[in-house]
Every structure is written in C-alpha cells, then in structure tokens.
C-alpha cells in the first residue's frame, strides 16, 4: 500500500503543474475540465479521499452532466486516493480501466544525470509548443489549448527542446520546479529518432536545471505499457511510488 501522504502531495503538485481551466469540487472529488485541450488529466474526475463515498450514483450522474456541458465523455482518474466503493460501483457497471500510469520519484542527488550536454530551457512558449506538437505527432489544432495550459502554470518551469540542424526538433520535455520537487511532463522523442539517446539527454538536462534551482526530488508519470520509457527511468534511478488508471463507461 503506497504512503497516502506522499500520494496526496504528488497529486497536488501534479495539478499545479498541469492546470485545468475549470476546477470544481463535489465533496473531495475534484472535477477538472478544459475546453481547449483533450488531455485526460485536464478532463477527469479525481477522487482525493478514500473515505468519501456517499451517494456515489448521484455524484457520478452530476459529474456526467458537467462533462456533457463541455461535450466531453465522463472519465474518472483513479489513484490510491479513490474510495474502494467507487471502484466497485464502476466495476459493477462494466466501466473499462485503461492507460495505467506509474508515478515514479528519485532523489536528484542519487540520479544518474551527469552525462550528456547541457541545454538551456527556451523562453518562447510558442516555439516550444510547435516543437512538442511535431515531436508527439499531434494535430496542429491543439496549439491554442496547449499554449493556454503552459501559460497557466504558476511554478517556475523549464521548456526543453533538443533539435537536429537538418531535421528540426527531436525530443522535448517540460520540467516544473515546485519547492523541493521537480516534475517532468510532456516527455517525448520523435518516432524516427527513438533509441538514439535523445530521451535520456533531454531528461538529464532538465533535471540538472532543476538541481541548479535547488530541487531535491524528481518525479514523473509514465504509462506502464511504455516499457522502453519505464526502463530508461529505472536506469536513471527512479523508483515506483504508486499507480493510477482511467475509467470510462463501455462504448467510449
């Protein structure tokens, strides 16, 4: 069983690092919605207290109406903070579980990050967004929404892009420095450049930047199915703290 105090802290810094446009609460269920970006983390119900499970059916119905007003399918993001009766309720209705994600941490002084070239973060949000969209292979229509999300981040953040002179951006990362914690987000390497060391280089450059700023612990989220990335982070010295997954009703 993971340490729930640590889970609560990482969940809180994760919400600050990837801010939703609209945040509402139904008890301790945080309802996050963002019209301009389809990210599940920005459009999901996040239960934050294992003991808060009164009137589950009514609260799920209210959440569905809120998501409907945004033209979004209802999605629950279930971490160890989700109440077990809610899990059982969704199981009984046949809601599928998908995109299991591992949350990992590592003491920065112990991580293997002192190799590779130093790269300074860029200040141009628009240029970073263009690079991130290209590296992830996403639709250009996401640019306004991603720009809005990045511009809303309040803790200091570093935008990292590795580029080749002839082919353009090959790897990107967002590093958010929140007190003693450094969170890594939007990590990606272009499909034709994977397994060439770029992912490791962008991660280590971002973490050296965070260490210079005084961060002591690094953390990140990676889908459990991404075995290459999980192996990379374990090789750097990260360890698993907890997992979460998304739930959605059948047919979506």
UniProtKB/TrEMBL annotation:
Acyltransferase among keywords = yes
Query: Which ranges carry the N-acetyltransferase domain?
Result: 120-252
Q: Has keyword Acyltransferase?
A: yes
Domain of life the protein comes from: Bacteria
CDD domains the record matches: NAT_SF
One Gene Ontology MF term: acyltransferase activity, transferring groups other than amino-acyl groups
Q: Which UniProt keywords apply?
A: Acyltransferase, Transferase
- Pfam families from the xrefs? Rv0428c_C
The name this protein goes by in its record: Acetyltransferase (GNAT) family protein
| Organism expressing this protein natively | Hoeflea halophila
């Amino acid at each position: 069983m993971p340490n729930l105090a640590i889970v609560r802290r990482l969940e809180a810094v994760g919400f600050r690092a990837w801010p939703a446009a609209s945040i509402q609460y139904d008890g301790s269920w945080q309802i996050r919605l963002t019209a301009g970006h389809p990210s599940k983390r920005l459009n999901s119900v996040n239960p934050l207290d294992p003991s808060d499970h009164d009137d589950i059916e009514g609260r799920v119905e209210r959440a569905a109406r809120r998501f409907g007003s945004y033209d979004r399918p209802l999605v629950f993001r279930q971490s160890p903070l989700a109440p077990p009766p809610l899990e059982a309720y969704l199981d009984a209705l046949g809601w599928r579980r998908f995109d299991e994600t591992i949350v990992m941490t590592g003491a920065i002084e112990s991580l293997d990050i002192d190799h590779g070239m130093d790269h300074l973060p860029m200040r141009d949000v628009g240029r970073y967004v263009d690079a991130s969209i290209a590296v992830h292979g996403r639709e250009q229509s996401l640019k306004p929404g991603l720009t809005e999300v990045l511009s809303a981040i309040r803790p200091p953040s570093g935008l990292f892009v590795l580029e080749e002179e002839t082919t353009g951006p090959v790897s990107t990362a967002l590093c958010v420095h929140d007190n003693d914690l450094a969170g890594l987000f939007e990590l990606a390497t272009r499909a034709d450049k994977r397994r060439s060391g770029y992912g490791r280089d962008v991660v280590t450059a971002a973490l050296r930047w965070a260490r210079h700023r005084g961060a002591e612990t690094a953390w990140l989220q990676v889908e459990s199915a991404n075995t290459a990335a999980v192996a990379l982070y374990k090789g750097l010295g990260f360890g698993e703290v907890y997992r979460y997954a998304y739930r959605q009703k059948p047919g979506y």
